[in-house]
């Protein structure tokens, strides 16, 4: 017996751009005329790929184009891609919110979907009153809702406001209650869009734990959309990478997140390896220049796993500031806090660095394992506040260009993020 719970074949979804209603009657009549003559929809041939960065020459666009994949029972699948890649459209088609233009979707089992904050909530009704219709929309029976009502409210953490109209809820409280209802529905498939980003860190962690229980503990299938690669990798074992409405790759989550990160870097994402800052003379000190380079001074964003990455820093001090300390924070994949570097010039810092321009080259700890890294540089005062800061200013990517499986010291064979070899002194 097959364990396939979702089977998508040749799935495409076309939308019409422009003002709503303009020329729609003429287009509908044209479609009808082709249909009764047994011919293909004429507008299926003229749509363009969904690239949001380019001006369209056609009023029709393919939000999804020729998508094929299967999901097995118990899989936790992360769906990743940039904004406009077609992720939400795919979930809406799977949830039967909208119909595909061409192709087919076969789903085995009941689906619980959380696509938008507060979907199905009536603002004038209380949280208690909204739980029942919202559960009914998701396919829960009244007795099932009554039996799980206390668990739903407890998980959402809104006990104090459960009899308050939801129009007075914050967006975070909305999503807490909505997720709790969807999570406690005994469905075979749970679909969650990016709405968890609305909640606070504690609730996001709680939701990820619940989805992990649903997938691994109860054997149910989870489809999860997020831009947080850390959350995706902690929850999911499989991944789907969408780009401009097309399926680029489906498979193991580590492979998919790596492909997404590489694509994001090489196709002109927000990655920056060099920044010149404007003067901020109103501040006691300010950053003027940040750049990443190799030991030869070549400024770039991509490095081999064994290549030394150097951070080039310039800042200006207008007024001597006691306790000012340059600090470098580095994260991996936008979530794992890798390490923080402090200057080794503590004596001059305690005395207050003198006015002038300071220029440094800092060798980052190496070798780093492959992945995408972001750097924040800050001029900290007594390490409790910032005089100036460039949050997430620089991004670089480490790749395994010089891979050699015979090299036992190769970074990929080691655990952790930093694969450095520490000096051992025998005594």
Low-confidence stretches: 18-23, 346-350, 404-409
Mean pLDDT, to the nearest integer, reads 78
Which sequence of strands runs across the widest sheet?
Answer: 6-7-8-4-9-10
Helix content: 10-25%
| Count of alpha/pi helices | 9
Could you give the count of β-strands?
Answer: 19
In one word, what is the shape?
A: globular
Radius of gyration: 26 Å
Kindly report how far apart the N and C termini lie: 63 Å
Largest sheet: 6 strands, mixed
Structural class: alpha/beta
Summarize the structure.
With 427 residues, the protein is an alpha/beta fold. 25% of the residues lie in helices and 32% in strands. About 4% of the residues have low confidence.
Q: What do these coordinates show?
A:
It is a single chain. The protein is an alpha/beta fold and 427 residues long. Helices cover 25% and strands 32% of the residues. It has nine helices and 19 strands. α3 crosses α4, α3 (127-137) crosses α5 (171-184) and α4 crosses α5 (171-184). It is globular. The protein starts with a strand and ends in a 28-residue tail after the last strand.
Write the layout of secondary structure elements.
Blueprint: E1 4-16, H1 24-36, E2 48-49, E3 60-72, E4 76-80, H2 87-94, E5 102-107, E6 111-114, H3 127-137, H4 142-156, H5 171-184, E7 189-192, H6 201-217, E8 221-225, H7 229-235, E9 238-243, E10 246-252, H8 253-266, E11 274-276, E12 285-293, E13 302-304, E14 310-317, E15 324-332, E16 336-342, H9 346-351, E17 356-363, E18 371-381, E19 385-399
Parallel strand pairs: 2-3, 4-8, 4-9, 6-7, 7-8, 13-19
Antiparallel strand pairs: 1-3, 1-5, 9-10, 11-12, 12-14, 14-17, 15-16, 15-18, 18-19
Helix pairs in contact: 3-4, 3-5, 4-5
């Amino acid at each position: 017996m097959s364990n396939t719970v979702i089977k998508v074949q040749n799935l495409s979804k076309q939308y019409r751009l422009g003002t709503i209603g303009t020329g729609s009657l003429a287009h509908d009549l044209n479609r009808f005329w082709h249909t009764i003559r047994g011919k293909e929809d004429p507008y299926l041939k003229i749509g363009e790929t969904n690239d949001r960065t380019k001006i369209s020459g056609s009023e029709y666009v393919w939000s999804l184009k020729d998508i094929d994949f299967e999901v097995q029972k118990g899989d936790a699948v992360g769906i990743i891609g940039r904004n406009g890649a077609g992720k939400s459209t795919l979930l809406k088609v799977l949830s039967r919110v909208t119909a595909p233009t061409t192709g087919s979707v076969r789903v085995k089992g009941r689906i619980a979907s959380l696509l938008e904050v507060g979907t199905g909530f009536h603002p004038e009704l209380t949280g208690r009153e909204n739980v029942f219709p919202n559960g009914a929309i998701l396919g829960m029976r009244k007795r099932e809702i009554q039996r799980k009502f206390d668990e739903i409210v407890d998980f959402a953490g809104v006990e104090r406001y459960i009899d308050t109209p939801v129009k007075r809820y914050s967006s975070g409280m909305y999503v807490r209650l909505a997720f709790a209802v969807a999570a406690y529905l005994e469905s075979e498939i749970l679909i969650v869009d990016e709405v968890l980003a609305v909640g606070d860190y504690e609730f996001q962690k709680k939701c990820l734990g619940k989805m992990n229980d649903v997938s691994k503990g109860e054997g149910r299938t989870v489809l999860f959309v997020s831009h947080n690669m850390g959350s995706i990798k902690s929850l999911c074992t499989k991944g789907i990478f969408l780009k401009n409405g097309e399926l680029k790759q489906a498979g193991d989550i580590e492979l998919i997140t790596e492909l997404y990160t590489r694509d994001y870097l090489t196709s002109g994402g927000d990655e920056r390896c060099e920044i010149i800052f404007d003067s901020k003379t109103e501040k006691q000190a300010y950053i003027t220049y940040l750049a990443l380079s190799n030991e030869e001074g070549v400024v770039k964003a991509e490095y081999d796993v064994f290549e030394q990455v150097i951070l080039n820093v310039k800042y200006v001090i207008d007024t001597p500031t006691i306790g000012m300390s340059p600090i470098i924070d580095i994260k991996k994949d936008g979530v794992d806090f890798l390490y923080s570097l402090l200057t080794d010039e503590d004596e001059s810092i305690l005395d207050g660095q003198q006015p002038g321009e300071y220029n440094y080259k800092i060798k980052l700890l190496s070798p780093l394992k492959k992945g995408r890294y972001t750097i924040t540089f800050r001029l900290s005062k007594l390490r409790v506040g910032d005089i100036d800061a460039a949050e997430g200013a620089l991004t670089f990517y480490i790749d395994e260009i010089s891979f050699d499986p015979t090299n036992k010291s190769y970074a990929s064979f080691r655990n952790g993020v930093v694969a450095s070899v520490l000096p051992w002194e025998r005594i």
